[in-house]
């Protein structure tokens, strides 16, 4: 009998402690600067996290699949700031080369979008006379920063072509709790 009363009192005690405190969840974008979190193999460039595959060349479909296996997407350049910062990074580390992006017009020929989010590609990023859909076979978009020339651009290319590629990770979120 005593054990029953003790268990009941213990339950009420735990319940009162739980009700005495309030939990406030806080979810923020990105990783706080004061934490020691490794983001490898992705590198942080301004607000984004990118993986540059510089050793293996794949066709667009294989590159897309490789990014997905890393829980990422092929690169989508959505803002002028992202374009500028990506170019600065590639120039600083001298890794100019052709890289697959998520850009494609496979959904509707002539209407190039970022496959990852279906947003139209900014016309200012295209190289001279691009996109040209040469031989009516170029439906995937590559990024290029030329070491010997000034600037960078994107170009349409046959999806079966072998290129390096850039994966873009989703923006991480940080969850924390305040107990009051």
From TrEMBL:
Superkingdom of this protein's organism: Eukaryota
TM ranges: none
Claim: Signal is one of the keywords in the record: yes
SMART domains for this protein: CLECT (SM00034)
Pfam families: Lectin_C (PF00059)
Chain ranges of the C-type lectin domain: 49-168
Signal peptide start-end: 1-20
InterPro entries: C-type_lectin-like, C-type_lectin-like/link_sf, CTDL_fold, DC-SIGN_domain-containing
The entry's keywords: Signal
UniProt-recorded name of the protein: C-type lectin 37Da-like
Organism (species): Drosophila albomicans (Fruit fly)
Name of encoding gene: LOC127565141
